[in-house]
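Troubleshooting: if your tokenizer reports a length mismatch, compare your output against this known-good record of 702 residues.
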Amino acid sequence: MGSWFLRAVWCTLIGFLACCSRANSADQHALIVGVSEYPSLGASHRLFGPERDVLLMQRLLKEKLAFPEDSVEMLSEQTGKEAPSKSPTAVNIRAAFASLISKAESGDEVVVYLSGHGAQQPADGTGQHRERDGLDGIFLPRDVDRWDGSQSKAGVPNAITDNEFAKWFTAIRDRGARLWVIIDSCHAGDLSRGRAEKVRFVDPVSKDGLRIPPALYRRARDRSTREADETNDQSRFDIPDLTGMVFFYACEEHEKTIENRLPGSSDPYVGLMTYALTSVLSQAEGSLSYEALSQRMHHEYIRLRRANGPTLHIEGGDVKRSVLGLDGMKRSTLLLYQDQGSGKLYANVGAIDGIGPNSILAVYPPPGEKDGEKLLGYVSVSDVAADTCMVLPVGFEGVPKRTKRSLVGGRCEIVQYDFGGLAIAVSIDSDRGSSSTEKLESHLKDAVDLTNGLARIASSQEDADWFLRERDGKAVLVPTEQFFAGRHDHEPKPSVLGPFEIDDDLPESLAGSFRALARCENLLDLATSSREAADSEIDVAVTVRNVATGDSKWPVTTKAGDALEYQFENRGDVPVDVTLLAIDPGFGITSLFPIPGELNRLQPDEAPRKFPVDVDGSLHGRQIVVAILIEGKKGLPRANFTALEQPTLAQFRGNGPKGQEPALQQLLERAMYGGAGTRSLPSRLKRQVDFQVIPIDIVLEK
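Known-good structure output:
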């Protein structure tokens, strides 16, 4: 290539193969498509980046990820000069996908890469659902032509629609293969870019663009607002089930992606996303998940001073899986990044994850880098927002304070929480005079140490949230309200955790319960005490009804086998990212929305979203549903808190007889009416945040 960039990117590749092994011996297949020239559209629409993009991807797959030489098919202007069948025309792209589908078999790894111009045209209505905006996204092959001038819905000649791609992608997955799709093009957004940057987008209606009749284009958009499908599109390609798939998009739906001279003004053009992806993977010396890869790519955007967009977006059912199934340790995806303006350090974890001021994070090399378990240093949390926190380097446990520069981009793990008086307070029920009291005290102390600050020994019985007591030779945890209500009753109380064997494993069993309780209590404390100021721009209506009975009055009463229909409507003026979590009576947390692959950002003008949820009646009683609503800002990834999921505690027993409040309800009431003992978010948030709490009563069938 004659470029120092290409030489530098690939100089470390060969050594990587010695330390990565594939989880199985399945075959690998890839299709790389790059379109730079559009003869029918004129020279003004020529791109320069795809020529380099496809070569970077080809080398990545062959030299870095060990794809066999004959397993990578490439269509580009250069390959088209060698053989007409390798030119990136519509017929060749369709033929290449047909071939790829025929080759894919169960267990195979398949990669599809597309680089070039994108655009939109009036939707043809062939998808499984109506397009929310009334428009089909289209990819433009080399032989694309302008609209023929008619008012019909024939479409842009030779353009390939998102519906076609959806059929191909689904066919590959349905053959049992795993699919990774990388798209470095776009079809929406604003055009404000730097002079040196080229936007990968062709205007649908302008004379210099595709010349779709403006009236036809407007009618498609207007129709979408009147006829919006009540079911939500599951992905940009209208694929309801994204199991076995991962999609990387260069930008959000309402943005445009770019190509530029990277990393410096004297270097050749390359797609921003392609540059970030190949740069991160070329330096990786261990495996990392797709999710971790996207996070490192986002920080690469920031390093290249693209903090305000475009916004890299990923979706799919396999986002937590290692890239292409390469073996490696599953590690934390909490990362440190530095604000380019202020120079301050931030971590992508916040109050909703249980972080508070003075919490300590250990910092390790970025995911995929050499010596990934080597400790670099520690940082202390100085300020907390909903989904981020500001941190400062500190000395801790004999490790000296490090410089900010040495920690930027590092992977973080939480080693010490600082809940202060909000940690779970536990006391021993010493009134019973059990012979095992001393042993329980020792085990409780060890369990508290294992929680790294999430739990503490209560200063008195009146200070306790839970009591540890011995019953029938085993240990149980009893919530404080039930402890005082039945203090001298030796009969088992329904809302308890346990029984646990009183042995060397008891500290870890208790610590696991304390962690689950702390996560639920933290979430409820924030949800019930953190309210935005009166001038908040977040205004999302969340409603739920029992589909069978039509009941929508809170608390909604339902039973096993019923379906609940939730609806979100963004009535405000800012985009909002939505996560819906259900806390069951056994302190399990289940994500209801978004499901894997779901687009969870609500735009201000978007039609209401509706989706059904079947009721799980295995644990009856009061269920608490928490809606987390956080401002969706340009340049920042979509906020998604589904990682807060946790299983129901296996040792949970019952909900209590009539008249006795279950432990979860008591926890909610403490959060709502506990006075000073609750948490709230600081006022100086990077993003506005709001919560809504929805009680659901699941009753036993008679």
